[in-house]
Protein 1
Amino acid sequence: MPMKHSTYSAIIVGSGIAGLYAAIKLAQSSKVPDGILLLTKSALSECNSRYAQGGIVGVLKENTPDSISLHVADTIKAGCGLCDFNVVKFISENSQHAIEDLMACGVNFDRNEENKLNFTLEGAHSVRRILHVGGDATGYGIEKALVDKLKNDKTIAPNVTIYEQTLAVELLLDSHDNCRGVISFNSATKEYEALYAPVTVLATGGTGQIYKYTTNPSVTTGDGLALAIKAHAKIKDMEFIQFHPTALALENSDSRFLISESVRGEGAKLVNQNGEYFMQDFAQKDLAPRDVVAREIYSQLSQGNKVFLDASFIGIDKFKKRFPNIYKTCLENNIDITKDFIPVAPAAHYCMGGIKTEINGKTSINNLFAIGEAACTSLHGANRLASNSLLECVVSAYEFVNTVTKQDLHSSKIIDETVLNTIKKYAESDNLNIEDYDVTELKAKIKNVMWNNVGIIRTETSLLTALSELNKINDVFDNKYRCSSLDEYELRNMLLVAKCITNAALSRKESVGAHFRADSVSNTVSFEHAGHTQKSEDRPDDSKIIA
Ligand code: FAD
Ligand code: SIN
């Protein structure tokens, strides 16, 4: 066959914090005789992680007002009781180690004049427990330290092969449904490669780009989730899409730069153009859980109001020092926070659901793992507590490495008939699709359909409309096996994931957390923090453990 074949001890797909940290820990374990392949669809440093602002949860002994039980209670309360108590507890307990190990990897968390760690606050946290880097550049700070370590540490770098601009397009399953590796597509050379390993981990991030307005960068198109859906892995909680309440809303622009929740944590307040500070009547005011704030802003905007953040409560000098990137970005867009309010609106931000996994990333498919935002460990339930996601990336990646290094990681090239048939489809050179449709236009259609119908407020009618529109797009783009470009693969994947989210939203008829059904009877009872009634079969009823 004209296609290249390669074997490794492990294949890591994705170079966000989950993928990078897994690569470092696996390389450090000295249990990867045939090396690690890290493949990533864009540049090594491009991912959601890079843009994280607010910080990472650190439940640290030195932070005396905090405790594991407080963090567990906050997480489960924000998640409306749909979190897995054991997972939450485990991740919380492992936070101290995760933070210490990140520091050992070269991450410099912000400190005060006494050289003590600075803790900030975000929505639904009962105490200050969030660590940050560079003020509002936490993701960049962590990602940079991990990339430096991966590339420059002499005990790590030789064990890791990095493929950039390379997309995993299909999981290689054998006739017993064991994962044997992936097929990759280099978007620059258009070459396919069959990659084999005893262990494959999807660290492919979330789904934000499926929506018209999102805080996520353009790479975040749900690709890993789509691979898992195609391979019939179990998927969970996809109806729970988190809309961040405060993205910078500029007229004549669809892009949505995040204005961190920690800006409200440090004192900023939401206000409408009539000067009404409309969150003041809510139990936790401006720091209510994200789903609550996002719905209230949505409601303000639907009434024709404009919504702003009033940062004057923070103090100008403090703001400039504490949020240098936000200050700079606002200024570049002619918003001078020394005299202007910041115009904000909600935007799709995080996918609570994903590939169903245990804490160590184990999926329902043998040899296939998923970690980070692509996975659903059930830490977040129906609504993620701010800054829990980076922590989950690190803890899960660590546990993944702990698990797989107990097995033999000598590479093997197992090619049975099923694997061979898959490879053949990519090896044939004569059937490259010629696109007779506009990929950019179809992507934009998906984003519009999802924003308008599967957004902050949903009804059965809007969800059925979405499904019908998505099916029409499917008819134009007939879900081809093999695509001719990265863009076309992204379109294929976005469509699959969009349908998955819509179907999940249709099947959950009541409102809970980030999933708000305007046609649900229970909404008359509780709009502020809707939910708690229906549970999926496989969700333990943890709301009863910590109520
Ligand atoms: P990502 O960082 O998204 O990385 C995914 C990687 O996979 C990318 O490299 C991508 O190119 C690659 N990839 C995807 N599919 C494929 C494929 N098929 N083949 C090859 N490569 C592929 N969380 C917090 O806890 N605290 C915060 O302060 C915070 N702030 C945020 C601010 C913003 C603006 C955004 C967008 C998110 C924020 N989040 C925050 C959420 C958090 O950043 C993400 O959930 C987390 O970084 C996800 O990390 P990850 O490693 O799972 O995925
Ligand atoms: C933010 O800084 O507001 C984002 C934090 C998060 O998504 O966890």
Protein 2
Amino acid sequence: MSKVEKFLIKRGNNQYEVVIGLEVHAQVNSKSKLFSSSSTKFGAEPNTQVSLVDAAFPGMLPVINEFCIKQAIKTGIGLKAKINKRSIFDRKNYFYADLPQGYQISQYKYPIVGEGTVILDMPYGQKKVGIERLHLEQDAGKSIHDMDPKNTLVDLNRSGVALMEIVSKPDLTSPEEVNVYIKKVRSIMRYLGTCDGNMQEGSLRADVNVSVKRIGESKLGTRCEIKNVNSIKFMQMAITSEANRQVDLIEEGKQIDQETRLFDTKKNETRSMRSKEDAHDYRYFPDPDLLPLEITDDFIQKIKTEIPELPDEKKSRFIEKFNLSSYEANILVSDLDTSKYFETVIENSDVKLSSNWITGELFALLNEKNLEISQSPISSKNLSKLINLIKDGTISGKIAKTVFEIMADGDKNPVDIIEEKGLKQQSDPKELEKFIEKVINENQDKVKEYKSGKEKLFGFFVGQVMQASRGKANPQLVNEILKKKLK
Ligand code: ADP
Ligand code: MG
């Protein structure tokens, strides 16, 4: 790893480092819940997707959803983690209105997935972040406090939905690393199809553990856990605000209490929710309704054959096969749809130009219109055509930008646009000479200056010719002919 840029908090002569560990809650991409057959579809009317199991009616028994197990194992493989052939579902006991069972079925000492690694591409090089474990658990329902002035309402649609909790080691050291980490984990899960990663719909959220220590100190400081943060921006704000709060306390000679905190997005500060003293004793014990989960080697092997090429491997292939820089490859693989788009474009077009146009013009357009690449107003087929028109000299790169803008308004075929608007590049030397002679005749004084040694003027002549041709002259040919004429 090259030079690591540290995120430091300074107070006078003292410098502090920040240490962060994340517990990411990722909703398993599954049509039905972890222990019941109710639908998990987002946005349904409250309490319409609740079976007797989800509502915890007496005598109901949970039945494990095999698909969710597969999804967790797939994710574990994507995180380069150890798959545990034996894991156990525990009851985590607590009382809350949106938890009718009075306990959450989760995994504690024996999770389905053990230690793994995620690689982050940072501007200062690659950074490895350790994964502590991944376990399966049920989600709780939702308490709604703002619909009725006097009562809290409960929606149990989410009750029993399968979550993967992915716990990182305390290896992250800045808000920017957290940003890259979340995006990387999300990207791996999207490649695998195990979680849609939709943060607006709550499919991906995280508890953020933060501590600070004097720079160079090896012992970790006391951590605070900020619960349930549901956007990357809020995670970054929460970390900065919480780390500064802790540093202030240390500077005042006070101690950090290990506690659970909430992030107030409006005030940009964290607030205590509960301290360690009144921390829950969840009284974990193995759920007697569920047998230990035993997985065979065959089962794991079969899942391995279903694992697609993942971002790290795709990136290596793009670098080796297409000679892309690590930076470009990284951008192109970070999102599965982008990589698919790119691979379709280059089936028929120049790789380097394709990469430039996708990461440059196309990304700018999508950004401006706030669209995903899957909603791109320009299809991969038409972008490929545009790139070929540049490559074979039919249009210049500059004209291509104009054509691109027109294409953005309804995905028109660039060949038709060029025809309609008469934008074809002028590459006939005879025609070009006409423009060049006109420019030379009209600028005799500049020609003299040029010939007497002011070579910088060459660009001026090129510019004038381009203007005279309304941007259509082939710039390379203009260069060549001008050089001859001005000798
Ligand atoms: P808990 O049940 O208390 O939430 P977990 O094991 O589920 O404990 O998660 C603990 C999280 O806190 C992990 O992501 C871990 O990396 C992180 N963590 C542990 N110690 C520190 C520390 N000193 N500073 C920051 N994060 C920490
Ligand atoms: Mg935890």
